[in-house]
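Escalation from tier 1.

The customer reports that the assembly of two entities below gives different structure tokens on two consecutive runs. Tier 1 could not reproduce it. I'm attaching the input and our single run for tier 2 to review.
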Amino acid sequence: MEIDPFIFRLSIFILSIFIGYYVVWSVTPSLHTPLMSVTNAISSVIIVGAIIAGLAGNSDTIFNTSSIFGFLAISLAAINIFGGFLVTQRMLAMYKKKKKDK
Amino acid sequence: MLSANLSAIFYLISGVLFILALRGLSSPETSRQGNFFGILGMIIAITVTFLSIGNFSTGFVVVLIFLLIGGLIGAFIAYKIPMTAMPELVAGFHSLVGLAAVFVAIAAFLNPEAFNLGSSGNIKLGSLIEMSIGAAVGAITFSGSIIAFLKLQGIMSGSPITFKGQHPLNALILISIIVLTYLLCSTQSSNLFWILLAVSFLIGFLLIIPIGGADMPVVISMLNSYSGWAAAGIGFTLENTALIITGALVGSSGAILSYIMCKGMNRSFFNVILGGFGATEQSAGEKNKEQRPVKSGNADDAAFLMKNASSVIIVPGYGMAVAQAQHALREMVDTLKKNDIKVS
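Tier 1 run:
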């Protein structure tokens, strides 16, 4: 008997939940904000869905209602990707060991 | 054009990179590397999506243009923003993810043929459920983040806004969301889909307004977790493993992070999330006390901070004498001195 592919996706989903659960337990308090900002940046992986939505459909009509929503979603997610990672970078730069002038 | 199997493997790689990113961010030494892994994972995910569609026509150019517009805006904000405005920035960014999730769900609902989800008005039941969940959670993330943003910016009062019958109302709306989802699945009516979205926006507002300003970081992290679940819901609809893995990762890690933050601030997790429950019962004096953000540290943190300092002043107090920590302190001072740090 074949297993429904949905079950595979469900297994991936559940296992990922557990990974997410364990991976952040040991975070130090001073890194809460950068971690939040990086998870935020990562959550904009929704752009994958947005690109699919933007490019899906027949090729002769680029702009239909459905794909326009996709394009808008791409822009929103892109703001988040660039903004999120750059801001994290900036925050982490403050943690860099200061260069001693002596 | 990339085969479905190959792109699934690349999505897996980007998923692993995201896990490494989260892992890296939990310790100061590896944090920058973690951020790098995150960027790499994102680049792989986007590139693979392009390749798997394999349609390098005008549509591709349009996508690139939109991507660049968003990217430029994002980069501009990231460079301009003052470091003190970080929490509201993250809140603002969340609202974008939520809105993006809603848009993707709308796109899938309007044009299900393009996603192999059946035809318009006759969408596969499972996909429709997943889509509704993704859209509803995305909408909640959006409106909730907007409120969090306004509160942190000071545009809206940071104090909890509560009114009578708030909790029954919220419960009612939550139940109506479930009922609407059920009706949507049985009738496939697009009107119900829009009503579902509107109601979800509303509940997002209502859930966040009773929460005070000091608890906002927890709320932001919670909303972060919601945006993850929304992404996972959409991932199921689009049968896309990258979205499922990452959505679940962000969803659970966001939830745990907000729990950890609550513990760090000595706040009850459920009080914060249910919002206003605790606040209404407290006296005014206590309320003021609660509004102040508290920061707690641990040994790791202290060591890290001191390692970066060029000079450290130690003020021994009664607590140290009670704890008999003089020897431990002496050892710490020696280590610090060895690292070329002035101790007095």
